[in-house]
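Schema walk-through. Below, the input block comes first and the output block second. Nothing else is stored per chain. Lengths vary across the set, and this one has 467 residues.
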Amino acid sequence: HQPHVCTLRLARRLLPQLRRRGLDTVAAHVGIPLVDRHRALGDAAITAEVWLHFLELLGQRGVTRLDQVLALQASARDGRAFACPLPRSAVMALPESSGIYRFIGADERLLYIGKAKNLRQRVSHYLSNANGHSNKTLDLIRHIHAVRVETTVSELEASLREAEAIRSEQPPYNRLRKHLPRIAFLKLTSDAEFPRLMISRRISHRGGQYFGPFRSRESALNVMGLVTRVFKLRTCAGRLRPEPSATPCLQGQIDARSAPCIGRESAVDYQRQVATFLRLMAGDAAVAAEVRATLTLRRDAHTDALRFEAATCAQRDLEQFERVLRRQRTLGWVVAQQHFLVLQPTLGGDAVVAYLVVAGRLMARRTLRDCADLSTLVGDIEPPQRLALSAENVDGTTILAAWLRDRGERDGCVLRFEDPSAAAQHLSEWAAALGTMLPSAGADGHAGGACVPAPSEPERGRDEHDR
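--- output ---
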């Protein structure tokens, strides 16, 4: 292998501000016309002009010799030489399926655990000298000597296994809870008299009521702003001891919040506002109509007074309010202490993976091959009051919430139920859903085992999104 100068690798070091560094992008950035592009002579001429431009940039860095150019293009963004001991042949032999991967050091020590939708594609990313690698990632790359993988039936299963493996094996390059998906919730604290609204990155066992999930913290903040403008709930930290001589925050001074800190509103009145907010989030149509009418009147009043900027803001509030209602209808039950069963077919189609969630917590994960397995799973369901919330439950709930937020129509089905102690009444419905996913199942949904459910009507009230 002879050393050579690569304009692509040099572009990573000399033009770090560019997201893409192909010949078209680099030439356009430095002002080189794309004449006879995709012709041998034309491409060679454009590359030569790019090289001449790079010579100027190299001179500005004091790079004047060929060995310095080769060293620069081989360096990483931290200035050290980029090197990965992991053989490319080992990466190319990896499967192109979802799963988790473990990076192993020279002394057979576990370094890092990650998940991937495509194992080969994800692991090969570590072989490239990309500008996006952090210093910690570059340090990890320089110590990878081997990779071991486990395939999974889906990306959801990979996420759950990754969380379990990181928690039990604690690799040194995995940050605490960094593996969990980006997600945000709106939380109403459990303060006795004056609960407050806040943003939370995960569901905690410390109490409170959660709403969401939202795609980002910014999205949750926007919703919190709307809720506080409508219901005037407090967002300031700490427990309140109302004192008339206290100075309220700016939002309290302009009457955008209720300011119970100075005794402007009694605990009874504040709790009434909290109760109305909770009714709205629970799907109360009367409260929704009242809030919608209030926002509409506010918009129209600004319009009549020719305050068009304020009217535009009020219209945005009205549109966001409708989005919040739609989200609560389709996803609010995820964190509202509800119960559901997720069924996902395996890659081979010969089995189904079941995820059982009771009271918003992931309680069981089983592989079902026939109705006998399903009956066993249903028989193991425990009442929510006998279950203690643990770190494993919190991680699993967060991952499932993100999956439910982003899932597609072919990602399995979600079957909701109201009472865990009466889950057996839904066995025939669940068996039918299982039968549609197993090729060996009969028309009645019984696959290789006898399901003898208690007689019941199929569950009603599930919206179309959950089917």
